[in-house]
Write a structure and sequence with these properties.
heterodimer, A: about 140 residues, mainly beta, OB fold (Dihydrolipoamide Acetyltransferase, E2P), five-stranded mixed barrel, about 10% helix, globular, B: about 400 residues, alpha/beta, Peroxisomal Thiolase, Chain A, domain 1, nine-stranded mixed sheet, about 35% helix
């Protein structure tokens, strides 16, 4: 479970559901864990559906379009490995299908950031097994 | 007796103690916790041997296991011990609920509640980046779904909430600044405040460096070492003890949903205190307008604003205008954090907020005393917006 460092990114852990999430990303697919019985998303992944208490899992694809829910602009690199990247805009993106995920927001000037602005996903490969979703204006 | 009233005025805070608050100490957390515990026990007029329950708001990380406290203080007959978890900084206020239950149930007579912190000498709260996971879902969520994107520290993921508030309600940087400036003013009047002697204007606040927008340096609380402790006893006993009793009239805890992840809450501005506050007021029979002061868990300015709203002092979204114009300063409508808070006194996980509420209700606030203070509210916040509210009266 050792947290790995690669270039200037901290990689997610090797928990099975986390591996699945980022492995899909590395194939260019944004999929979220969902209930195989009632169909509700449950992100971040967890063992049981809070809607129907099923423990059956599927991974549902989303279109990769959504809106900006909120953001922060990391200016001070509290995590020193980001010292060459800051400032970075780290948004919470609400996918059109419902789940929300943190991600870098690219291609937007700070003064143009708006709650509700339309975004679309792309992926930044960091290893052959892990890619990080990132979003830019749709 | 209605369920919601079952703990009203059953327990009193009868002793308070604090160490000095410093940045860097050679003392262990246990040594700090013992020092604050002895101060609180002496303040209560008790001998250590009379303590028969030990409650640890931050588990053994707050100074030691209950057994460590017992072995040093000489507690030969401890009837109840417990630790709180998962609610982070809300656990000091939450510990009052457990103490009141233990006392009301007749399990113990005098409950000691100590906490020590080493935010300066030990690992920083900013060190989430290096945590390998504790098995708690919240920590795994941070590590796997925030940290790869550069968001791992409270200043950053709590900034998401502040930005959302600014975007949808029009809250301004100057309104966040009004909170920081008020806390700093109050700290000038407290001998144990780390920021005493370092006054701050709005210009100073706005000129400070960015940490994670919308948060600047002085939107963020202090990192220091120190300890504080309480002794809680039954109301019947308290009336014959050394200090004027401070009654716990209402107490409740509440949780955001889902608790372990911020982005996927239906509304990230709905916090644990939204659930806790109505229950605490209902238990007390009092309302927000009855409060003579509020000690709000000010880990960051935006979180202070959210709690002022959720504790019922203004409507949702109106926190920005509410904190302007000196309203939350001493002499204003609702003095907030009369000791300087986590922003300008010290970060003791909010135990210092409870201590200050007791000081005010005893009338011992000196030049920062809220005139005729009769009722006060103390909030706790932690672990991704878990909340607690205590309603205290003299």
């Amino acid at each position: 479970m050792t947290q790995q460092l690669l270039k200037n990114r901290r990689l997610p852990s090797d928990r099975p559901a986390t591996v699945t999430f980022y492995d899909y990303c590395s194939k260019g697919e944004l999929r979220f864990q969902a209930c195989a019985d009632c169909g509700e998303f449950r992100h971040p992944p967890r063992p049981m559906c809070p809607h129907c208490n099923s423990q059956n899992i599927e991974w549902k694809a989303v279109k990769g379009t959504g809106t900006l829910y909120t953001w922060t602009i990391v200016v001070q690199a509290l995590d020193k490995i980001l010292v060459d990247d800051v400032p970075i805009i780290v948004g919470i993106v609400e996918l059109d299908e419902g789940p929300r995920q943190a991600a870098w927001i690219l291609g937007v000037a700070e003064e143009d950031l708006r709650v509700g602005m339309k975004l679309k996903v792309s992926f930044e490969a960091v290893t052959d097994k892990v890619a990080l979703p990132q979003f830019s204006p749709a | 007796m209605a369920d919601s009233m079952s703990l009203r005025d059953r327990a009193c805070i009868v002793g308070i103690g604090e160490t000095e608050y410093v940045k860097g100490t050679p003392k262990s957390r246990l040594e700090l916790a013992l020092q604050a515990s002895m101060a609180a026990i002496q303040d209560a007029g008790l001998n250590p041997q009379e303590i028969d329950a030990v409650e640890l708001p931050n588990g053994s990380a707050g100074g030691g296991a209950a057994g460590d406290l017992a072995a040093n203080l000489g507690l030969g007959d401890v009837r109840f011990t417990t630790s709180l978890q998962e609610m982070g900084g809300a656990q000091c206020v939450a510990s009052l609920e457990v103490a009141a239950m233990v006392i009301a149930a007749g399990i113990a007579k005098h409950v000691l509640i100590p906490i020590a912190v080493q935010w300066a000498s030990g690992p920083s709260a900013r060190a989430f980046y290096e945590q390998q996971g504790t098995g708690l879902q919240s920590v795994e969520t941070i590590r796997d779904y925030y940290v790869p994107f550069g968001v791992g520290a409270p200043a950053q993921h709590y900034a998401w909430m502040a930005q959302r508030h600014m975007s949808i309600y029009g809250t301004t940087h100057e309104q966040l600044g009004a909170i920081a400036v008020a806390m700093r003013k109050h700290a000038q009047l407290h001998p144990k405040a780390l920021m005493r002697g370092k006054p701050m204007t709005m210009q100073d606040y706005l000129a400070a460096r960015w940490i994670s927008k919308p948060y600047r340096l002085f939107d963020c609380s202090l990192e220091n070492d120190g300890a504080a402790a309480l002794v809680v006893s039954s109301a019947e006993r308290a009336r014959d003890m050394k200090q004027k009793p401070v009654y716990l009239s209402g107490i409740a805890t509440g949780h955001p949903y889902p608790p372990q992840d911020i982005p996927n809450r239906p509304d990230i501005l709905t916090i644990g205190l939204d659930f806790a506050a109505p229950a605490a007021y209902a238990m007390s029979g009092l309302t927000p307008s009855d409060m003579d002061f509020a000690q709000i868990y000010d880990c960051f300015t935006g979180q202070t604003l959210l709690q002022i709203e959720s504790a019922g002092f203004c409507k949702k979204g109106e926190g920005g205008p509410f904190v302007e114009g000196g309203r939350i300063e001493l002499g204003g409508q609702l003095p907030v954090n009369t000791h300087g808070g986590l922003l300008s006194q010290a970060h003791v996980n909010g135990m210092n907020h409870i201590v200050e509420a007791v000081v005010q209700l005893r009338g011992d606030g000196g030049e920062r005393q809220v005139k005729d203070a009769e009722f006060g509210a103390v909030s706790g916040w932690g672990g991704h917006a878990h909340g607690a509210l205590a309603i205290l009266r003299r």
